[in-house]
Write the structure tokens for this entry.
Amino acid sequence: MKLYNTLTRRKEEFVPLEEGKIKMYVCGPTVYDFIHIGNARPYVIFDTIRRYFEYKGYEVNYVQNFTDVDDKIIKRANAEGVESTVISERYIAEALKDAQGLNVEPATKNPKVTEEMPYIIQMVQTLIDKGHAYEVDGTVFFDTKSFEGYGKLSGKNIDELMAGARIDVDDNKKSPMDFVLWKPKKPGEPAWDSPWGEGRPGWHIECSVMAKRYLGDTIDIHAGGEDLIFPHHENEIAQSEAANGVQFAKYWMHNGFINVDNEKMSKSKGNFFTLREIVAEVPYDVVRFFILSGHYRSPINFSRELMEAAGTSLDRIKNCARSLDFIVKNVQGEMTEDEKKLSEQADEFRVQLENAMEDDFNTADAVTAIFELVTFANRNVSESSSKAFAEDILNKLLKLCSILGIDPVEKTEDNGDTAKIEELIAKRTEAKKAKDFATADAIRAELLEMGVVIEDTRAGVRWSYAK
Ligand code: AMP
Ligand code: ZN
């Protein structure tokens, strides 16, 4: 299995630290609002990668934090006149609802900054003790010059970084590249006691601490959006490796950005959509499918037209699953010799999907493999197929979809009248057999009145609620 490692800037063979196990840390959202469609991308992508590892038999320890101490949270809390935990807890609950809607498997652990304070203070102290950090008037800075590998992830040396980056001017810093580990309390802000006075942590330290606490000093994969490479992930490496004395993460993976109408999504441009706004128009599974339709490292463009197109494509898979399911329920028999050969042929689509995923998780090509199976099913499975064959192809389709976290089986909402509908359909079938077409037509009309449309097929009567 090959994956692109941002640290080495090439595709590498994946070798886990420990056989059969994977330690994976993904940076999570800052919870001051509903997650936006851009945040949905790392949720879906790294969940799909996790699912693929699980499909391959790995046990994945998956940690994703919530940043619940932050300027934006405090600002919103002050605006609403509430404690900042009211804001963060509200949007953590909403983010978890969105993740569930996107069919993201729950993380092994979702640590929060507010619950990790003693461990954060401990790591900051270790960095001071080891000569990698210094305190000035209640602020603790990381001394970037003390860490030799600084810049290795973003591929820059300190001088280039200083020339290129926008750096906070702060007279207390020894070097402009030094960054904050702990900052003193300001009026109206939440604060915690520390050896450097009351205050709160800088942003980067939380991930170093949580990864260490829940996964260990060295982890397999660390992931997030590409905007985090510098400075966030560069700083995490500096903190963790300086404190722990060992390599932090073996593989660094970053997803590309979601742009809106071909422009970078940002709040200031006003081209910013929360996931909630989008799912008011299209279902969550279409959003997931849309995200999977592109390679995770490429930028993808969001527009309503593209989202609708994703819905149409997903419908092709759903229609196929629905037809197969219907055939399975209405035909009988074991596989013929020809069907056995076709069944073997259909295994190729699984191989195709695996090859795509093993090549740096090319979900776009994996989706193509599913479409090829759909075309194969539409061509080869019909009402004259055997039950065993139709079932086999349906299971193959469901398996491939489940690897990507897609569930193509429409949940037929039961409006509580399924039994009645089926009884009426049976009566109508009886009436037709007895050539009592007047009764048959009356029953069809009665069903229509209930909002149910029926369709006569060679394998029996198919019904659905009218759209
Ligand atoms: P944030 O709440 O901004 O810290 O972001 C949470 C996660 O979403 C991080 O992994 C970001 O890199 C990622 N992210 C934010 N905006 C986008 C975007 N427009 N496209 C893709 N990923 C994004
Ligand atoms: Zn992080």
